[in-house]
Amino acid sequence: MTDLLLSQVKVSGESQFGTDEYVVNLGPQHPATHGVLRLIVKLDGETVKETVPILGYLHRSIEKICENRTYPQCITYTDRIDYVSAMSVNLAFAIATEKLMNIQSPARAEWLRMIFVELQRLASHLLWMGAFAGDIGALTPFLYGLRERERILDLFEMTCGQRLTYNYIRIGGVMIDILPEFVPKCLAFLDYFEPKIDEYEDLLTYNPIFLERTKGVGVIESEFGINAGVCGPSLRGSGIACDVRKQQPYLYYDQVKFEECIETAGDCWSRYKVRMREMRESVSIIRQSLERLEPGPIEAKMPPVLKAPVNSEIYSRIESSRGEMGVYLVGDGTAKPWKAKFRCASFSNLYVLDQLTKGWKVADIMAVLGSLDMIVPEVDR
Amino acid sequence: MFTGENIVQIVAVFLNWAYAQLGISFLAGVINPIISAVVMFGFIAVFVMFLVWMERKVSAHMQSRIGPNRVGPLGLLQTVADAIKLTIKEDVKPVKRDKIPYFIAPIVAFVATFMGMVVIPFDKGMVVQDLNVGILYIIAITGFTVIAILTAGWSSNNKFALLGGFRSAAQIISYEVPLVLSVVPIIMITGTLSLTGIVEYQHQAGYWFILPQFFAFLIFITSATAEANRAPFDIPEAESELIGGFHTEYSGVKFAMFFLGEYIAVVVSSAVAVTLFFGGWLPLPFLGSLPIPGFIWFLAKLLLVIYLIMAFRWTFPRLRVDQLMDFGWKVLLPISILNILLTAAVWLLLYGKGAQ
């Protein structure tokens, strides 16, 4: 691929000192690409002429592995698809499997799932905020974000013993019930966390340099965004209502009050704003869910070996921290999926990178990449 | 009172006595500058190490961390450990580098900024060489860093380094202009280019130039931050875009020289700012009777200004290259020219023609 690109570079002008494109290889090891994403960038001075993402450096063929694992075993692999937001992917797979096998998880499990997925959204957005600000050159918000994220991970650790890949949300319910002290601790965290959002906004939102760097940069026109398959907060920044939690409510999202955060400008700043507002909404969802939590079973009654009906297929989607997370499953009557396919938000969002950065400066690649909240294991799977 | 001037005189008397004893008085003109340079170098080396520690503590404080706390009390020796690690490290060099420029660049970057310290008056009479064109000299000599950075970027034979070098050249040249222009009003008022002379003027006038020349100070500190390649103007070494920028391919001692050079540039700019706008070694107006030597006042003010520059770095995002140019040419330059005109007008109104 590189050779192909390099061969396209033609020397223009007849003189000995001809000018040609400046091809820079960003990645796969580069401080700003959030993992092993590789970008081949053609430059004219500082101006970007073309950005070509090269994928596959983190490809672990999770979808193929899932074909050789039973449904409960697959959950472990879904953790690794998006390790920054592992609960969401757990949930996506669990919901798809439940729909495939007609299992209804009990009410307490559903509320617990909502609490944990929203906490996960907070943790993911916090990490994103830090990384985005770091891409633009402000290093301090990263530490602020991680400081609060630690508290969320403590809550996770208290419940399921894990801090990164939880394997907590299982088919038909959740792994284990919460401890009695979880609810007060979670409420204490929310009380502590809400003023912190104001602190981040004080530091970043109307900082003149931050505005310079993000306002009007990397605009996704709403029609182009839909056509390109952009989803999640990135598309909501362009004024499109696309939150699966509102459009096709799953769990008990239709029973809690929350606002779908939409900004209209479509630039990096709007996408930033959408996620900051989403954090506040998540806090409110967690509060409501904690109130509705009642004692009861946490796992549905299920046969010892889970088998999907013959020739059954399902596509189910949820709103992960990064956008629409779809799972497509085909069952063939055995305990293993015949086909598992994950539709990940990062992959489709990455598609617009080239159009968004064309004609802008090198530094804008980082701003746009950061604002799309892309994560490489989700792109490569 | 035990002042910096006393110390210098005592040392001078002792040295003259020593020369006389050794019978080498005729060499005093050669040896004295060498001794001054060595003392200054030692001071700067220790001071910069302290600054690196301070920067890490300041950033840790701003980011609600603890910062270095393992090596020595409060982690004070962390920088020493880092320096030792850098010096004994393997010097990895790119094979296709341009050998001579690659070798010279870090030396030039270090020496050029270091030489700026020569004319900084730490106290009355406590200055290596009180040039009558001091301020001009500092601006000229620190401007050399751009050559070093451009050379480093070119000779590394690395695309990121080259981009960093180009950015740096554009940036330093652009910000040199408002930097010089922001100093002009003070030169107009005092009628001297000597840094000692400027402090003396503030002593006689009874006020510091921060009061009448506040905008000049803002322009100066902004341009100086840009000159020193520090955030929010650190685009030549923008980590998230260009990895290390011009010093991507440098390691070990050579990297340390760039690193030291950056910090010395901060020290020089802050020292000039203190001298021009905060009355150099002069004590605070109502604390003049305290038995504190002038150079302590100077260092205290210096640390405050450096703290200000450090606080910038850990608060602001980084500007983009074109925004940086716009800011320099379209905002800072007009303001500094206006400032000159305004100062001249007010001066003429107050004191009439030929006033000094």
Order of helices and strands of chain B, N to C?
A: HHHHHHHHHHHHH
Tally of helical runs of chain A? 16
Characterize the biggest β-sheet of chain A: 3 strands, antiparallel
> CATH H-level name of the largest domain in chain A... which superfamily?
Cytochrome-c3 Hydrogenase, chain B
Number of domains of chain A: 2
Number of strands of chain B: 0
- Please report the total strand number of chain A as a whole number: 8
The CATH architecture of the largest domain in chain A comes to: Orthogonal Bundle
The CA-CA distance between the termini of chain A, in Å, is 20 Å
CA(first)-CA(last) distance of chain B:
32 Å
The proportion of residues in beta strands of chain A is: 5-15%
Structural class of chain B: mainly alpha
Rg over CA atoms of chain A: 22 Å
The SS-based structural class of chain A is alpha+beta
The count of domains of chain B is 1
Give the mean pLDDT of chain A. 86
Strand content of chain B: under 5%
Most extensive interface between two protein chains, with residue counts: A-B, 32 and 29 residues
Order of helices and strands of chain A: HEEEHHHHHEEHHHHHHEEEHHHH
Q: Bin the helical content of chain B.
A: 55-70%
Oligomeric state of the chains in view:
heterodimer
